[in-house]
Amino acid sequence: MIDDNTRFSIISDNSSNGELIIEAYSHPSSDYFTNIMNFSTGELVFDSNFKSKHPDRRSGLNATEVTSYQYLGMTKIAGALNMLPKTMLRQHITNPSTNEVIKIYKTDKNYPRFYNNFLRNSDNGRSSLRITNTFSLEVTSIKLKSIDNNIRLHLEPKIPLISAEEPLSPRGDMHEYFAPDSSPLETRRQANCCAIL
């Protein structure tokens, strides 16, 4: 299903400064996924990824499966089969749970809570964790880009490799930020509690 409904394009225009940028567009059933890899910078951009609003029209594929397929195709075209992303950019975020995390962070400016809330509690963050786990990458930090509510994830290879079948930790309560400030030790624990071991 995904083979027949995916196309790849090499993006080359005056703004790319000779960079190798490949776009993958998959449209299985009524879902659509557009992701872009800049092989010069190592950034994988999640441009638009949407499942159909009508459950009976969905493809049954998830974002991890589609992104993995697209990324493999993009690396084959680029001749960079051993290259993994250094950063991921969640661009033009419209997901309600992720926008709630962003709203909380803009209010309290508490980075450890933002990191934890994004990766544990938001749909985009949990999807990012599943994808990074599949690629055996670890999210070392995240940064909110205030324009268009974009979030950039900084990545490093995860050693030892972990199984893609290992489940994520359960969701937490993103409104924990109303609690009194934690001690530095508790803050460090909060920042690390979303790690999948």
> Number of helical segments?
5
The count of DSSP E runs of length 2 or more, i.e. the number of strands, is 7
Q: Quick one: biggest sheet? A: 7 strands, mixed
Low-confidence residue ranges: 177-197
Helix content: 25-40%
Overall, the morphology is: globular
**Intertermini distance:** 33 Å
Order of strands across the widest beta sheet? 1-2-3-4-5-7-6
Rg is: 17 Å
- The tally of domains stands at 1
Order of helices and strands: EEEEHEHHHEEH
Average pLDDT metric? 80
- The assigned structural class equals alpha+beta
Strand proportion: 15-25%
Protein name: YD repeat-containing protein
Organism: Bathymodiolus azoricus thioautotrophic gill symbiont
Task: Offer a concise description of the structure.
This protein is 31% helix and 24% strand. By secondary structure, the protein is an alpha+beta fold.
Task: Give a description of the structure.
- With 197 residues, the protein is α+β, with helices and mostly antiparallel strands.
- 31% of the residues lie in helices and 24% in strands.
- A seven-stranded mixed β-sheet has the order 1-2-3-4-5-7-6, covered by helices on one side.
- The longest helix is centred in the middle third of the chain and has 16 residues.
Labels describing this entry:
single chain, 197 residues, alpha+beta, 7-stranded mixed sheet, 7 strands, 31% helix, disordered C terminus, YD repeat-containing protein
